[in-house]
Specification:
CATH superfamily of the largest domain: Vaccinia Virus protein VP39
Largest sheet: 8 strands, mixed
Shape: globular
Number of helices: 10
Helix content: 10-25%
Length: about 425
Amino acid sequence: MESRIIEITSAARKYGNINLRSCGKDFFPADAFGASSVSKGIGKPITLQVEGLKGVIKTDIPTNNKTDKPRWIFRNRSWVKKFIAIHEISPGQKITINRVRERTYEIIPYNGNDKNNTKQIEQDKCDEERIKPTAKKTIELQKSSKKIININYERNCDCKPNHINCLSAKEWLKNQLGVWQFYYEGRDIRDKTVHPATFPISLSKKIIELFTHQGELVVDPFVGSGTTLIAANDLNRNCIGFDLQASYIDLCNKRLSQNNNMFNKSQQIAIQDDARNISEYIDKDSISLIWTSPPYANLLNRKRKNKSRRNRDNGQLNKIEQYSQDPRDLGTLELKKYSEAMGDIFESLLPLLRPKAHCVINIPDMWWENKRITIHVSLVEELRCRGYELRNIIIWDRTNLVNQIGIFGWPSNYITMGVTFEYLLDFWRPPS
């Protein structure tokens, strides 16, 4: 009897989304994968025998309507919350899925002693071996030294309780357009040797003003050069930024020390740590906005060719601009592993967001070996599976910031220049 062990997440408790990705496609019959919606056609049903529930459940696994890839959740999942409640399963605990027959699966709580879970147990042993004893001690020491940050997250303005921000009706009207343009200012960092992928303070300020009130808490999981912190300082918002690289944390602190805002009554803090550990620093239901520009998968982890530029050698030719080769760095990952890692990070952040609080991610697509790699599509699908709801997609029109563009692909291969636009993906935590 073949088995898989699945870790239960907050998305499973709230929305019934059991993440089946680790099961692998071969664990289920090929015809069990149906279309994206019932109206377009379901797969040939499989049967679930769920411990503690009467009867059986017939279901299939939906696929993405654009990519045809599995969404890795059961379509019929109304039973999941009941199953979790009956067995008092908390996020982080596990369940076992046993394939008892070709199209029949048994779902039970994981007891830690299931002899049939050979594949998962072997994988766990491999994971243990990858971490040397000294490294494990370091990790345990780091975790034990962390604590919740004492930072305010309540609004201190006079806005009405049902207002999403402090904007007037006239200011609100200016934000209705779905295509945005911005300009750099003197405080912005443009030097790619300092940071290879910066964005304007004006962009960060617009996002923060649109989705928060004064005094509320903004979090940037990939703070980089600290632009989000500077914008929050300007706007009197509390803000915490995280980054793996000590040099970027030093840069953040240097920029904050030079950004003297006499009206600022809030805190802006830069912390060197993995975004996977943010939940150790922040209380649940306290974040009013997650705003970030994360690594763009492995876009920067290759030599720059500058094929689209008339001036080929502009100081970036043949350079690898990737932030680091730290295995924790998302910029070293190809798209599939990158999307899964982003999903893990943002799923851990979801309980920290207030209900109806927004999460905005700046991301482009990229070209790789003459194929368009749709990073933004992968992130939308991944975060939806992790419990987020997509609200808006805004186009950041960068044409006013781009110089020295040459003929790219002419005359036989039409390709839009990725440097001329990026996506602002606006999600929120659905109201409970």
